[in-house]
Amino acid sequence: MQLGLSSLDAWYLRPELIITAGALVLLVADVFARNARAFWFALIALATLGAAGVVLGTQGGVDVTVARGMYAVDGFAIFFKLLFVFAAAMTVLLSHRYLAIEGGRSGEYYFLVLTATLGMMVMAGAVDLVALFIGLETMAVPFYILTGFLKPNRRSNEASVKYYLLGAFSLGLLLYGMSLLYGLTGSTELRVIAPALADGRGGRLLAVAVMMLVAGLGFKIAAVPFHAWAPDVYEGAPTPITAFLSVGSKAASFAMLMRIFFEGLSAFKMSGLGLVFGQPLGWTWFFYVLSIVTMTVGNLAALTQTNIKRMLAYSSIAHAGYILIGIVAATPRGVTAAMIYLMIYAFMQMGAFAIVIMMRRQDVIGDELQDLTGLAAKRPGLAIAMLIFMLSLGGIPPTAGFMGKFWVFASAIEAGYVGLAVIGVLNSAISLYYYVRVIVYMYVRKEETATPPVQLSRAMTTALAVAVAGTIVLGLYPRVLFELAQASAATLGRADQVLGFLR
Question: Domain total for the chain?
Fold first, then answer.
């Protein structure tokens, strides 16, 4: 395989090159201008993300493969890249005041945020196993460091070590599956692997490869039983990084999952299990089981949590189960629904974590449920915003969360998975308990002891306003997002026949 980029490749890779340049500027500035105000580092990061977002906006309708066939610039990739840029920009806005309280070098911090964003963008566009691995590690390594960024904090250090060790183990499983695919097909390109497997080659060895891939990717999306790392990492990491991890890393992992399974493994059937189930099973049945277990365990575990970050961690696990319903449907509408859900989830999850970040002030951690006691009386605007996010996460109309779940469940019913949709609805009903409990603390319970007032910065207020607006607007007028996701999903696999193998 020949490597190298042409001038035409560089033209289509402008967003990635802009992010790379911005990250390098921050790295150099952190060395030579260490005493500069943290504001300038945040401004460089935001300018870089803004420039990348503008370029992505001009690439609508592009559908090409660059970098010697290893990288696709299509609607599917552009959709996810816009999501990553949004999540990273929100993280930067929420981090400025947080870093001032916690301490830490801003230049290094924002450099790592941009590097993780670059890795996510590569994961969304790569159509080669090697490129996917490079993107995954480019994203994962900065997150390992960012999780332990609060060096004096033992919880942060513990979370970083756990994340690193379990991440390395899951990466081994993923690489083992990738190596088996290469051995069976002689190629690492997904669009070469798919037709090579269409003749039924591989047998049990291919089934092992698929199981390894499911396990490795299951860790990245925090699906049960590969979820054990999520609660500890979410609780111990700096809260803006927890928000970024729960939105950006999850979306990138789902993008990678869809690339591998819809483009590379669309023809996979486990014919050996036909004696038990009466029909050959495809990889969708792995995710069928994972979806049910993930949303059920995630919701049940969240019921007893008193720490908001841990509660949102288990909530994130449950939402991964909902998104998997769209993957199980394995139809254009199912892929569209999963993409819509991920975009909506970015708004409401970033917004919920924004409130937790705002509760952090001198001598108050702000991540326990009791820290929200009486918030409606002290800060009614923040209480209303948190109310909107909790109702949206619970799937209550007319919020965006309701529309996301509606599309996902409808795609499952359309594909014939009525039972899976019913289980999803029941799990949504269970989740309302712990979301409403947050509302009770804000509006019903009274604060017993006085705490320092919540102080907001302009950056935090801007981020919160964007999250609230997105959660409301996408609930009342979702047509624009639906049309964008539908057009983007149509480019996955470059042809409708890819999804046809799965039916």
Answer: 1
> What is the domain extent for residue 237?
7-500
Residue environment code for 157-194, b if the CB has 16+ CB neighbours within 10 A, otherwise e: bbbbebbbebbeebbebbbbbbebbeebbebbbbbbbb
Query: Which residues neighbour 374 within 8 Å (Cβ) at sequence distance 6 or greater?
Result: 442, 445, 446, 447
Cα distance between residue 211 and residue 288, in whole Å: 13
Whole-structure pTM value: 0.91
CA proximity to 323, closest of 333, 311, 331, 335:
335
Residue 1 resides in a domain: no
- pLDDT for the residue 62: 81
Q: Is residue 134 part of a domain?
A: yes
Per-residue pLDDT at 235 exceeds 60 = yes
Instruction: For residue range 365-411, list pLDDT tens digits in order.
Output: 677 888 888 888 888 889 999 999 999 999 998 999 999 999 999 99
Task: Evaluate whether 139 touches 252 at the Cβ level (below 8 Å).
Answer: yes
Cis peptide before 225 (omega within 30 of 0): yes
pLDDT for position 155: 84
